[in-house]
Amino acid sequence: MNRMAPRKQQEIFDATVRLVAEKGYDGLTVEGVAERSGVNKTTIYRWWPSKAALLGAALVESDVLGFAAPDTGSLRGDLVALVEGVRRLLTQRPAADIAVAALAAAVRHPELDGHRFFADRFAREREIFERAAVRGELKESADPMLIVDLLAGAVWMRAVLRDLDVGDDFATEAVSAVLDGVRTR
Amino acid sequence: MNRMAPRKQQEIFDATVRLVAEKGYDGLTVEGVAERSGVNKTTIYRWWPSKAALLGAALVESDVLGFAAPDTGSLRGDLVALVEGVRRLLTQRPAADIAVAALAAAVRHPELDGHRFFADRFAREREIFERAAVRGELKESADPMLIVDLLAGAVWMRAVLRDLDVGDDFATEAVSAVLDGVRTR
């Protein structure tokens, strides 16, 4: 099978994530994606056998949810940038509608393989901690995935589950809590 | 309007949260709740005008998702117990199915008023931080809701979004990261 042109593939992914944002997972259809992207339905099915497979791939590869690990020169700067990125992802349109609709769908539909999205991001986030370890900024006991889950989870709690504003100071304060600790010494 | 007997109300809430776990929000109907709880449909509608109102109330008041703030004598002990509670809620059946289905629905259906669930819990979690402040365990700058969101969000990330095991050491390690900090000094 020939490769699909990358631009065409992005158009399909873009149509997929936008449709799930507009209509929810139940309203997403391969037919709808075909119509919106101008790609033949059978072509889409040749590459992705189901709408779950298509959305799973789109979550990881769509530019709308694109992600590059920050590299500011310090662990604190990198983590603040990371939290800012998650804040934008979960509060700014259209990314927020897409992320929330897709992740809510992933929770209810394991066949969507939604954790690939997080595994793929974490593979890139690791670099932040490798550089911090080289600079001697991290305790040896520190667990990179735990740090990411504390910080990203806090944004998710605040913005999505509590439905509260995530203020401009949120990233700095969350990173300070995790780096410096909140107890008296 | 007369009050409804508390036991009858719990049966309705219990039927509601179990049905949402089994069938998802789209499959939840007041008719289904009436049938499962043995309460007349018109009686249910008299108290809760829609299935969204019914599920919103059930999330806050159902015993299945019940919550009491721990009081172990130390901030560390209380937070470990709190994280253990969230871990059980998000990993043990039937609570996990209910919590995940209901919260996924809350994200997609704002009329469900799902953040009441978190506001109600936080009102009780505050006590942990009030006692810790009296004991002098917390930095003055520490923000209780941020601490809860970091810890509860990490469990949510790990168990629900990443779909990974939350190990027996998770609570201790997450609390240690937030209390003690992860950077070298």
Automatic annotation (TrEMBL), chains A, B:
Which Pfam families does the annotation name? TetR_C_11 (PF16859), TetR_N (PF00440)
Q: Does the keyword Zinc apply?
A: no
Locate the transmembrane regions by residue number: none
What top-level branch of life does the organism fall under? Answer: Bacteria
Which stretches are labeled DNA-binding?
29-48
Q: Which PROSITE patterns match?
A: HTH_TETR_2
- Give one GO term, molecular function aspect: transcription cis-regulatory region binding
- Keywords on record: DNA-binding, Transcription, Transcription regulation
Q: Describe the location of the HTH tetR-type domain by residue ranges.
A: 6-66
Protein's recorded name:
TetR family transcriptional regulator
